[in-house]
Amino acid sequence: MIGRLKGLLVLALLCGTAIGALPAGAQSEPEVNARLDSLFGDHKPYRAFFIDLKAAVVAGNKPAVAAMIAYPLTIRSGGKDVALRAAPDLLARYDQIVTARVVAAVRKQTYETLFARDTGVMIGDGEVWFSGICNDNACQRQTVKVIAIAP
User: Fold this and answer.
1) Which element (helix H / strand E) includes 63?
2) Which of 52, 117, 146, 150 has the most crowded CB, counting CB atoms within 10 A?
3) Handedness of CA 63, 69, 72, 77 (dihedral sign)
4) DSSP E strands, the chain
């Protein structure tokens, strides 16, 4: 009887491990669209931004990536806070900030597996976050930009 219980326990643990190995948050495109619509009002600018960001990062298009950042932005790199006030600051440190780890996370990310919450949309395990940035005091117009990078 105890042997059978141990076997069932091992089976349960293996099943739990297998389930945990599935992609977290895998959804259909319409489900992601609906989630972004509910959080941000419209998924279209977020979807377009993700596609453009992924293309720029994977291609190594440094000026395009630099143009997609919300400045000023403080990045923790090499154990130090690095203040990025404008695109030239990112370009000067691009390879230290947009590391191979960041590029791999962006390359692997699909639209259907994006994680979104009220503060923004996450790529990978938090390597990159993006969100809408208000263009006016009433926040009637927004531009989607990168708000965090974790090299």
Assistant:
1) helix 62-66
2) 146
3) negative
4) 73-77, 80-84, 115-117, 120-123, 128-134, 142-149
Crossing angle of helices 29-40 and 44-59, rounded to 10°? 110
pTM attached to this predicted model: 0.82
Enumerate the β-bridge partners of residue 83. Answer: 74
Distance CA(117)–CA(129), nearest Å, equals: 11
**Per-residue model confidence (pLDDT) at position 106:** 99
Pairing of strands 73-77, 128-134: unpaired
Sole residue written with tokens 């996370």 = 105
Mean predicted lDDT score pLDDT of the chain: 88
Residue with tokens 């692997």: 108
Q: Which domains does the chain have, with CATH numbers?
A: 25-149 (3.10.450)
Residue 119, token pair as written in the block: 């503060």
